[in-house]
Amino acid sequence: MNQGKASENPESRFSVALVSAARLPGVRIHREAYLRKSLARYCSEDDIRKAVEETPAAAGIPLDVLDRAANDSIRYETAKVSALSAAAGLPGFMALPATVPADLAQYFGHMLRIAQKLAYLYSWPDLFSDDGDDVDDATMGMLTLFFGVMFGTQSANVAVGKVAEMMAKQVAKKLPQKALTKGVIYPVVKKVAAYIGAEMTKQTFAKSVSKAIPVVGAAISGTLTFATYRPMSKRLKKHLADSELAKPKGPVVVVEAEEVHESSVVAHAENPAPEATAFTAEGSRSV
């Protein structure tokens, strides 16, 4: 009974999908390896070493260089998720019960991949502290807000900006646990999760229709993925690049952000920005 009610709850539906996607092979990005690879074309070894040990902002890497590296990653992930989505559309109607849930997990997995890559380029800390399957509550909250930005929710934009401001002021190398799990940011996380969960329900049905006819469904599926994934990634990129955390900083003493003293974060929760694109549930597994 309770499990059935949980599955009908949009917030719970999104949380389950997010955790499931985070457990897929290849979804979690190794921060050091990614920064070294993505910056190798543009930066000296000394700058890369400092970006890894501290942050790209602390290394003084110009934003235009980070933007080029971010665009490289967006192109790469968009191409992969679109190809996998098209492949998932090939079986047709008889395979819908298997392909649509797998498509959703794969799409979320690639959203997680690009969210991590963009976060690391724009000086956010490591989002996954270990190699286990579990995802801690603070990471869940932060990823939910990143997804909210990608979906175009104004409340998520404000909340991510507040978290970035907190961390920049306290020079934190970890996410602010209290703010994201029971502080002023937490109610926004819950409302954003509920909004995305509701969108998942509507768009999964639309995606099922697009997959009903083999070959044609594959073309539609791949095209829809390309048309939504890239703008959503670009939206997150712009927001992170403009945040306080991405601004260049000098040498500082590192602490962990825990306490938050803001009196309020946002007045409304889940209204998407006018330019927000519709969500499409995609793919089978991340590569």
Automatic annotation (TrEMBL):
Top-level lineage group: Bacteria
Protein name: EcsC family protein
Organism of this sequence: Streptomyces broussonetiae
Region (Disordered) location: 267-287
